[in-house]
Amino acid sequence: MRIAALIVAAGRGTRAGGEIAKQWQKLAGARVIDHTLAAFSTHPQVARIVLVLHPDEMHRAAAFEAQGVIVVPGGRERADSVRLGLRACGDASHVLIHDAARPCVSAPVIDAVIAALKTSPAAAPGLPVTDALWRGEDGQVSGTEDRSHLFAAQTPQGFDLAKISAAHAAHDGPAADDVAVARAAGIPVAITPGSADNLKITHGADFARAARILERQMDIRTGNGFDVHAFGPGDHVTLCGVDIAHDQGLVGHSDADVGLHTITDAIYGALARGDIGQHFPPSDPQWKGARSDIFLRHAAGLVRDLGFTLTHVDCTLICEQPKIGPHAQAMREQVAAILELDADRVSVKATTSERLGFTGRGEGIACMATATLVKP
Ligand SMILES: Nc1ccn([C@@H]2O[C@H](COP(=O)(O)OP(=O)(O)OP(=O)(O)O)[C@@H](O)[C@H]2O)c(=O)n1
Ligand SMILES: C[C@](O)(CO)[C@H](O)COP(=O)(O)O
């Protein structure tokens, strides 16, 4: 089975409101569409992702294409967008068609659809209706419906690619979803377990519920770092990537940037991936005099490789001299640039140790840092 995920995101999101369509709005630290894509890009059985965007939003395509996603412009109705996306599914044998507006879809919901596709040409998640169902007229209950055979339809809806492509090509008129298109073509559809968490963001109030669900599902980690470098001969120190004139330098195998070393260690700590000495041994001559941004870039790369997002760094330098305040903003910007992070998410501050201890006696500079990582 070679599976493509087809994410439809070409709607206008008029019912949800807001200045931009719902799929571009922020939700639990990322955009709705990012959460949805992550659910499929991290799924081990999904080989290809096709994303359908509104024709007016195609300027956003390059950022997704850089991540290996195939982007195509959508159509007027959801079914038109699906039809256009199906053509880009290439050599896949099966396709999972999913609403971008369902960002809380979980791996078990996707797994169940894939498992059912082994024995059925189509499968989709459904949630049994649990509330009683009334008929109503003029504000009065006029009857009760039998709910024993009723399900709320969810996505991803999975299909044999050739069969659903033919069904869409032949379909004329409106369709509630792709299951309706499949059934109109005579394709049987198995029902798999849906989830109450797999809501479709439809109205503005749905954002708060989706955020609570995602935050519950997230892997949020903090790591701390601590480092010390002694003063020695020199005419400047390098702190958080910024060179500061000083009557002494810092001693170290690399450029002795105690700030960047500490932040690097905080990130390794959050990932539970050892420390800077393990990744860049001081015994290795290639790191002699190296600029420490190399170490921090390595840690940031590891964050991305392991599927995390770095959301915040807080760094405290501990020294009597040099004064950090005048350089703190430049340091924040330097760290943010190395980490490809907004400067608002980087804090660099300083304290003295009230002339106590080795920092108080001016023998060296110490640093503490905390890094926060999130994985959806
Ligand atoms: N022409 C369309 C219409 C909808 N969709 C996508 O289909 C999914 C489900 O549709 P819905 O919730 O109805 O989204 P919108 O059409 O954007 O919402 P609204 O009806 O409130 O405008 C969404 O991910 C939406 O982006 C699409 O790709 N192309
Ligand atoms: C496909 C779907 O998500 C199934 O529940 C849904 O039908 C699409 O959204 P809409 O609000 O019906 O357009």
TrEMBL record:
List of residues binding a divalent metal cation: D227, H229, H261
Q: Which UniProt keywords are present, listed alphabetically?
A: Isoprene biosynthesis, Lyase, Metal-binding, Multifunctional enzyme, Nucleotidyltransferase, Transferase
Record-listed E.C. numbers: 2.7.7.60, 4.6.1.12
Task: Report domain 2-C-methyl-D-erythritol 2,4-cyclodiphosphate synthase positions.
Answer: 220-373
Q: Cross-referenced InterPro entries, in alphabetical order?
A: IspD, IspD/F, IspD/TarI, ISPD_synthase_CS, MECDP_synthase, MECDP_synthase_CS, MECDP_synthase_sf, Nucleotide-diphossugar_trans
Q: Name one Pfam family in it.
A: IspD
Q: Which reaction does it catalyse?
A: 2-C-methyl-D-erythritol 4-phosphate + CTP + H(+) = 4-CDP-2-C-methyl-D-erythritol + diphosphate; 4-CDP-2-C-methyl-D-erythritol 2-phosphate = 2-C-methyl-D-erythritol 2,4-cyclic diphosphate + CMP
Q: Where is this site: Positions MEP for the nucleophilic attack?
A: R147, K200
Give one GO term, molecular function aspect: 2-C-methyl-D-erythritol 2,4-cyclodiphosphate synthase activity
Region: 2-C-methyl-D-erythritol 4-phosphate cytidylyltransferase; residue ranges are: 1-220
Q: In which pathway does it act?
A: Isoprenoid biosynthesis; isopentenyl diphosphate biosynthesis via DXP pathway; isopentenyl diphosphate from 1-deoxy-D-xylulose 5-phosphate: step 2/6; Isoprenoid biosynthesis; isopentenyl diphosphate biosynthesis via DXP pathway; isopentenyl diphosphate from 1-deoxy-D-xylulose 5-phosphate: step 4/6
Positions bearing the site annotation: Transition state stabilizer? R15, K22, H253, T352
Family matches, as SUPFAM superfamilies: IpsF-like, Nucleotide-diphospho-sugar transferases
Identify the cofactor(s).
a divalent metal cation
In residue numbers, the region (2-C-methyl-D-erythritol 2,4-cyclodiphosphate synthase) covers 221-376
PROSITE patterns (UniProt xref): ISPD, ISPF
Q: Which residues form a coiled coil?
A: none
- The residues that the entry says bind 4-CDP-2-C-methyl-D-erythritol 2-phosphate are D227, V228, H229, H253, S254, D275, I276, G277, T351, T352, S353, E354, F358, R361
Family of the protein in this entry: In the C-terminal section; belongs to the IspF family.
Role noted for this protein: Bifunctional enzyme that catalyzes the formation of 4-diphosphocytidyl-2-C-methyl-D-erythritol from CTP and 2-C-methyl-D-erythritol 4-phosphate (MEP) (IspD), and catalyzes the conversion of 4-diphosphocytidyl-2-C-methyl-D-erythritol 2-phosphate (CDP-ME2P) to 2-C-methyl-D-erythritol 2,4-cyclodiphosphate (ME-CPP) with a corresponding release of cytidine 5-monophosphate (CMP) (IspF).
HAMAP family attached here? IspD (MF_00108), IspDF (MF_01520), IspF (MF_00107)
Name under which the protein is recorded: Bifunctional enzyme IspD/IspF
Organism lineage reads as: Bacteria, Pseudomonadati, Pseudomonadota, Alphaproteobacteria, Rhodobacterales
